[in-house]
């Protein structure tokens, strides 16, 4: 078969009667085989230079097995009219006791239920010899006139009863369908165990070609005496050696679909043809529907759909779906390479009570208007949409629906992940979940629609008289949603309150600022204190309202950014809620309660409220009522807005607000709150991260159950007000010299959100940051050099909440020795740590470099921020072109200048001529992990490359 090198692939491919031998996809030999109904392939890849095959890929899955024991068995004797249904032996005999007689035996196994798509590889009947008896049994026997005791088990064609069957009433059997028992090795006292291949019989039973009435064991030659095979029966006392059938099968066939071209193909080696089998890359069919109509599909089956455009309406039903054994997968060649367009008046893909179906790496383009969707999930469980691109012109792109009165299941345990969903018309809804749907996760998707009156995600109740149905346990996390009107809509009813909704770490941007535009809109949510909705880690930008809710109870809303809305949060008929550690920056009111019950049993603490409105507006606007807790907030209004409007009275200042009772406990409320500018870095560009100079830093109080900030960083015991907790990082930008001497130095930068502390240290060093439990940040610098004087030394810095170095110590072994913070000397060794600490405020944006040096930038909160200068003319809609490499120089994220993303949630940044402030949010990108180093490579319009090393 020729010579094979590292990574070469050797394939054996069967197509019809041809057996092909290929090297790296090129045929090198072939032969003709006996034809059957199966096409298959086996790939083996060279993995080592030793030339051994170390990876094998096949067109079928690994085998499973199941063992079946007899439902009944019986011996029948030609010399008796008696029934022997309880005989402890299973015989085939020709003998004589003055009168010649024959024994035959019947046995039947109830076949198990296998998946509809199971392919039986082999089925073995296991029979055990009768050794171990005293006196000894004859066992297998072939003596005197015996020629051979070989036998067969024949397929029975009629039913029989174990307790009544006799020789004369025995069922007929088919002499053309059988399994073979060869002759025993010895002439007598032979107890060999037999494994009988009955694969053909079992396949007939499963296919329904013949009804399972079991088999009859008969000697091949019943003419000669002293001929016998003897085994244990199901009534034998040795239970471990009773008869059984071992069935080995697999589920997981690979099917192939291709268009009329092999351009850009990934899976197939030939164009599609309707007459092809679809079971081989060399014999693909032309559509998914043709695969479904030709075969019964089930768990672990995969349909590989190669590059091309396919126009078809695809329906999966309970006859073609997965199960708890595994998904049925439709896998494309890439969400820009494999495209499916639906036909007129049809959905693209209709899952009609079809469970465990995965659609992955495919572009779905719904060009129909009205109620036709890309994905219509009608009562189908465990659906997975992954890494797909969905475009739609109709009312919705993905729809889930179910109610028990529809007579179908519920679409539970489904996932939509890493998809791009875009709309092409007004009034569209991208993901709609209606009725009795639960445990659905929507994560790491990009949902974009700039047309009027569009909604990102909607949860709806259904009323099917006389019952209301509602979604529950819905998780919406790490999505980027940019729509016109409503980001997320939770639409319940008094009789269908929607519970246990988690909305976490999403970025929601509204393109319209009209009165009826909402980042998140709730109607009827929270039925009891054990059914809590959680809104955390979200950034909600633009629109009339950040969050608007009515009939809203038992929710936890914390660690969110709400900015450039008109009204941050508006509540009507709401109580028993928690609002903590949120950062607001809005043009009118930040917290609006339109009914008197809004403060009831509600916590409002550790929030930053910034209203840029005039004196006509207020940070808080409340009808009346008292909070369960209202304190440790920050109020700021640079353009004259008041602190609160409460019970029809104006409170323009914090002191006046502190003077009126709005707290149900002792005191008036807001005793520890502050009125100050929180020093947001750039709220115009949606950056509300406070830094160590903010008056909100470590000015808050602990809230039970909230231990981290919006970026997942641990909150200190004295936490900061607002969504983020400022931290310091140590950057090492330059190693000046590779030759270490007493005078050699490196420049290090202790960096926080918006500040740098620069100092000089000798030699090279390693940083060991520790997360403080109290109000001090602590960093140790471990020195490494060419002298024993500093081999075991380290310098520790403690930094207070204002970023000032509070104290310095030397650490040798486990002992610490204080140093003078004014001079930072090491035992008078003339090695300056910093003659004086230089504290200065520097921009949080860094610069790209032509050539990488030894330093790195810390991307606080997984936000990579840098300046990018574009000196050439750029067209509208041009995106920053970049690649991000991990430490092994594997590309983990990239975007082309046309906006093509890999993965689909790689952040986009449009650029213009001149200076650009770039912020790339790397949260949720697979392959980018906290604590690891990465390199970003940026290309300008002349393909000149710039670099930055960074760490998360």
Automatic annotation (TrEMBL):
TM region positions: none
Keyword NAD: no
Keywords: Secreted, Signal
Cell compartments where the protein resides: Secreted
Gene3D superfamilies the record matches: Single-stranded right-handed beta-helix, Pectin lyase-like
Gene Ontology CC: extracellular region
Domain called Carbohydrate-binding module family: residue spans: 69-248
Signal peptide residues on this chain, from the entry's feature table: none
Ranges of residues in domain Periplasmic copper-binding protein NosD beta helix: 470-610
Residues forming coiled coils: none
NCBIfam families named in the record: DNRLRE_dom
Protein name: Uncharacterized protein
């Amino acid at each position: 078969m020729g010579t094979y090198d590292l990574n070469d692939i050797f394939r054996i491919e069967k197509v019809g009667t041809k057996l092909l031998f290929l090297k790296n996809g090129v045929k090198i030999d072939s032969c003709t085989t006996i034809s059957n109904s199966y096409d298959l392939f086996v790939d083996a890849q060279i993995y080592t230079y030793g030339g051994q095959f170390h990876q094998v890929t096949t067109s079928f899955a690994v085998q499973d097995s199941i063992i079946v024991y007899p439902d009944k068995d019986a011996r029948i004797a030609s010399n008796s009219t008696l029934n022997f249904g309880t005989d402890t032996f299973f015989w085939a005999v020709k003998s004589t006791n003055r009168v010649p007689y024959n024994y035959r035996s019947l046995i039947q196994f109830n076949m198990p239920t296998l998946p509809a798509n199971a392919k039986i590889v082999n089925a073995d009947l296991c029979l055990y010899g009768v050794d171990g008896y005293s006196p000894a049994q004859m066992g297998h026997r072939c003596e005197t006139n015996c020629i051979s005791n070989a036998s067969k088990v024949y397929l029975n064609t009629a039913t029989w009863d174990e307790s009544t069957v006799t020789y004369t009433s025995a069922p007929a059997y088919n002499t053309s369908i059988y399994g073979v028992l060869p002759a025993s090795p010895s002439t007598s006292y032979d107890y060999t165990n037999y494994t009988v291949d009955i694969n053909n019989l079992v396949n007939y039973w499963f296919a329904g070609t013949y009804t399972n009435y079991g088999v009859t064991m008969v000697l091949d030659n019943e003419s000669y005496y002293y001929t016998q095979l003897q085994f244990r029966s199901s009534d034998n006392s040795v239970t471990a050696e009773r008869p059984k059938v071992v069935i080995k099968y697999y589920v997981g066939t690979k099917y192939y679909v291709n268009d009329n071209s092999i351009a850009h193909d990934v899976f197939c080696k030939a164009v599609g043809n309707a007459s092809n089998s679809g079971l081989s890359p060399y014999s693909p069919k032309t559509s998914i529907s043709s695969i479904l109509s030709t075969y019964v599909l089930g768990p672990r089956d995969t349909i590989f759909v190669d590059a091309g455009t396919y126009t078809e309406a695809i329906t999966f039903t309970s006859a073609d779906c997965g199960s708890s054994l595994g998904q049925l997968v439709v896998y494309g060649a890439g969400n820009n390479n494999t495209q499916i367009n639906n036909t007129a008046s049809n959905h693209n893909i209709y899952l009609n009570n079809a469970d465990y179906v995965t659609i992955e790496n495919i572009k779905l383009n719904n060009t129909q208007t009205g109620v036709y969707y890309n994905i219509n999930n009608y009562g189908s469980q465990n659906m997975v949409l992954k890494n797909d691109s969905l475009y739609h012109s109709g009312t919705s792109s993905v729809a889930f629906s179910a109610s028990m009165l529809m007579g179908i299941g519920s679409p539970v345990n489904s996932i939509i992940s890493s998809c791009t969903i875009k709309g092409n018309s007004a009034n569209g809804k991208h993901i709609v979940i209606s009725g009795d749907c639960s445990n659905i996760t929507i994560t790491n998707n990009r949902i974009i629609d700039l047309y009027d009156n569009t909604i990102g995600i909607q949860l709806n109740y259904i009323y099917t008289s006389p019952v209301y149905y509602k979604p529950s346990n819905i998780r919406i996390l790490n999505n980027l949603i940019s729509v016109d009107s409503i980001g997320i809509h939770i639409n319940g009813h008094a009789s269908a309150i929607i519970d246990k909704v988690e909305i976490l770490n999403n970025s929601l941007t509204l393109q319209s600022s009209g009165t009826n535009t909402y980042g998140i809109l709730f109607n009827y949510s929270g039925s009891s204190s054990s059914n809590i909705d959680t809104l955390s880690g979200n950034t909600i930008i633009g629109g009339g309202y950040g969050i608007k809710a009515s009939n809203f109870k038992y929710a936890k809303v914390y660690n969110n950014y709400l900015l450039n809305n008109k009204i941050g949060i508006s509540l009507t008929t709401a109580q028993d809620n928690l609002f903590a550690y949120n950062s607001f920056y809005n043009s009118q009111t930040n917290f609006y309660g339109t009914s008197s019950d809004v403060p009831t049993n509600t916590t409002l603490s550790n929030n930053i409220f910034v209203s840029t409105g005039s004196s006509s507006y207020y940070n808080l606007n409340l009808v009346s009522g008292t909070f369960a807790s209202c304190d440790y907030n920050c109020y700021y209004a640079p353009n004259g807005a008041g602190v609160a409007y409460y019970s029809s009275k104006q409170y323009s200042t914090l002191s006046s607000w502190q003077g009126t009772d709005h707290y149900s406990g002792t005191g008036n409320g807001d005793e520890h709150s502050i009125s100050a500018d929180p020093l947001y870095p750039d709220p115009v560009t949606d950056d509300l991260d406070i830094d160590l100079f903010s008056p909100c830093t470590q000015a808050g109080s602990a809230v039970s159950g909230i231990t981290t900030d919006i970026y997942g960083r641990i909150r200190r015991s004295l936490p900061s007000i607002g969504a983020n907790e400022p931290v310091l990082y140590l950057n090492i930008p330059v190693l000046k010299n590779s030759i270490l001497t007493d005078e050699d130095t490196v420049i290090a930068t202790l960096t926080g959100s918006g500040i740098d502390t620069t100092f000089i240290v000798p030699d090279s060093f390693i940083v060991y940051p520790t997360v403080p439990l109290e109000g001090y940040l602590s960093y140790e610098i471990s020195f490494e050099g060419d002298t024993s004087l500093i081999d075991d030394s380290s310098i520790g810095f403690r930094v207070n909440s204002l970023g000032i170095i509070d104290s310095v110590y030397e650490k040798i072994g486990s002992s610490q020795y204080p140093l003078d913070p004014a001079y930072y000397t090491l035992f008078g060794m003339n090695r300056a740590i910093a003659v004086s600490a230089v504290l200065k405020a520097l921009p949080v944006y860094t610069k790209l470099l032509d050539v990488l040096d030894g330093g790195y930038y810390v991307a606080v909160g997984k936000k990579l921020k840098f300046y990018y200068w574009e000196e050439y003319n750029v067209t509208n809609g041009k995106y920053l072109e970049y690649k991000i490499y991990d430490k092994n120089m594997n590309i983990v994220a990239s975007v082309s200048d046309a906006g093509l993303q890999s993965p689909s949630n790689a952040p986009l940044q449009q650029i213009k001529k001149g200076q650009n402030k770039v912020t790339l949010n790397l949260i949720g990108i697979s392959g980018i992990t906290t604590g690891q180093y990465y390199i970003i490579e940026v290309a300008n319009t002349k393909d000149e490359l710039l670099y930055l090393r960074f760490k998360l």
